[in-house]
Every structure is written in structure tokens, then in C-alpha cells.
Amino acid sequence: MSRLREIPDPDHLPALDPAFLARRPAFGLGPDDHPPRILLLYGSLRPMAFSRLCVEEAARLLRFMGCETRIFDPTDLPLPDQSIGDDHPAVAELRAHAMWSEGMVWCSPERHGQVTGIMKLQIDHLPLNMGGLRPTQGRTLAVMQVSGGSQSFNAVNTLRLLGRWMRMITIPNQSSVAKAYEEFDATGRMKPSAYYDRIVDVMEELVRFTILTRPHAQGLVDRYSERKAAGIPVDAGQDLSAIAVRPQ
To answer: Is the pTM of this model over 0.85?
Structure first.
């Protein structure tokens, strides 16, 4: 059973003016030998969930820019510690998709001034360390939120905090869609607007940061404390910083 959502009309972008968006926005920034792999998570189970609709719009844009995307459906995720040893197929699949990814998009509704429980539930099921593997560390992250009222940034601020805690490279730009119920048509497609244009900006930046950091992702999160705990000393012959300051 796959918990990945299919994107309706994946190549139909009625709100986008393609004359102003490059198909390869990260060209020349880093190795482009395979499509960036992006996992997208959303935070509501409502049939007309605007966080999901925003994620679908983001996935279409990422596909347009040459990415491979996966949208995870959290419908049957258990509560943390509800399954002994996290032995649940939905948890295993979420973690597998996280390991597959090079970057992520998190989009939550703002509820009671914060991210939703569904959004936090998914993040809580992603451990920092999983048998020596790290599902989030070094990956890029874009954060977005939708609101039922006026524009707010409580949810994206919390998502940024969580991304930092999960040791992710959270990009500077973000999206906050106010009065989301006014921004989508009856078919669930986002109308042309400044809010839509901001999502384009965010996805464009995510692609660039993913390619830019791709060759350096492991080095950027290499930590003294973890090397010490694992008993892995620095190879003096490969330590370029030491070579640079060594007396001649």
C-alpha cells in the first residue's frame, strides 16, 4: 500500500506565467546529475484541506522545474508511541520517503495560533537518528502555512524552529496564505495572486538551495561531538583547515 498522493493535473499550471520561470533555476550552482528529490508534507485531513492544495501547487511547480516529488498522505499515521517500537507501516513508509528525499516542503494550517497536530505528528515520527541513518539532517526545507483569517506567521515560525531542531537547511523565503478559502477555485486550484507568486518564489529558491548544497550536505552537518562519540578521529592528511595554517 502506498500512502503517496497523486497530483491532479500535474502539468497544468493556469496561474503561472512560464515566460518568467526557468525550467532549471539552479543551473550552474552545483551538480545536476539527477532531479532534486522533494518530499512534501501537509497538516490537515479535511476533504478541502488548503494546506494540501498548497502542497499540490508546490509539487506541480517543482515538477515544472525538473524535480521529482512525493506527497505523503498522513491519514492513518498512529500517535507517537501508540505502536510498540514504531512498528507501523505508515511510520515506516514516511521514514522511507524522508530517507529518499534531498529536500522537503512542510505546509501547515494555523490552528489556535500554531501548527496542527497532524503536522507535528509527522515531524515527531522522523527521528534524528535511525540506526545510524538520519532522515532529516542536511536536507533542505521550505516552510509554508495557510490561515483562515488575516495573514500570520506563527505556523511558519514554529516550522522553522522544528526544521532547525531536525538539523535541516531551512531556506530564507517562506509562504503564508491568508484567508485561504478565497484563494482557491471550486476545483481546488489556486487563483493567480501575489500569494501564488510567493509560492513560486519559495519553490524556486528551494530548488536552488538543494542543488547548491547537494555536494556539501554531509560536510555542513559534520559534528565534533558525533565524531567523538563514534570514536572517529579527524584524518590529519585530509584536514584542509589544518594544512592551511600549518607552519611552512
So the answer is: yes
